[in-house]
Design brief:
The structure is a single chain. By secondary structure, the protein is mainly α. It has 7 helices and no strands. Helix 2 packs antiparallel against helix 5. The mean pLDDT is about 90.
């Protein structure tokens, strides 16, 4: 019988991190659905432009992940998590603002996608090494299990929720919800 206190009840740092991550994971599902829909319906993207969109979303991982990983390993991971979350939220906020101003174009769209992918990649790298800092070695399994349950639930239900929000509010406004989720997560 396990008589140790619950990880969630005993570790406030983990509880805050897990709560923020859960909000952000669900919000990110909105952007996963909303960005391509914004490109197709608002910007009238063709197949080549959608390919560029996908390239902008993945190239940062190839360009920067090794350098970022080495830098993050030597840096304050908590600060990196906070700053990259805030920067990702700010980047995504550009989409609804420019859409509202009727100024959204492919240049702005691609820059936002590239920058938000870069900051997300940096967040993911810091995230992997932050959990062992805030939980004990004995609680690491339970902490990772809780985070993966949140990730799985967000992947199962998040895109359905995203589709519902996009249908009601529009893709750019729904992306603003994800932007807010990054600020809440921070």
């Amino acid at each position: 019988m396990n008589t140790s206190p619950s990880l969630v009840k005993s570790n406030k740092n983990f509880l805050l991190f897990w709560s923020g991550q859960t909000v952000s994971m669900f919000g990110s599902q909105v952007t996963i659905v909303g960005l391509p829909l914004t490109a197709v319906y608002l910007l009238k993207a063709n197949s080549f432009e959608m390919g560029l969109f996908q390239a902008c979303a993945t190239i940062p991982f190839f360009l920067f992940s090794l350098i970022a990983g080495a830098w993050i390993d030597q840096s304050n991971k908590r600060s990196i998590l906070l700053v990259t979350n805030l920067l990702t939220g700010l980047c995504l906020l550009v989409i609804p603002i420019f859409a509202f101003l009727n100024a959204l174009n492919f240049y702005v769209f691609y820059i936002v996608v590239f920058l938000s992918a870069t900051f997300s990649m940096m967040f993911e790298l810091a995230y992997l090494s932050f959990v062992p800092i805030i939980v004990s070695r004995e609680d690491l399994y339970r902490a990772n299990r809780n985070l993966e349950v949140s990730r799985s639930l967000s992947q199962i239900f998040g895109q359905s929720i995203a589709g519902f929000l996009i249908n009601i509010l529009s893709a750019p406004i729904s992306i603003m919800i994800d932007s807010i989720s990054y600020f809440i997560s921070s």
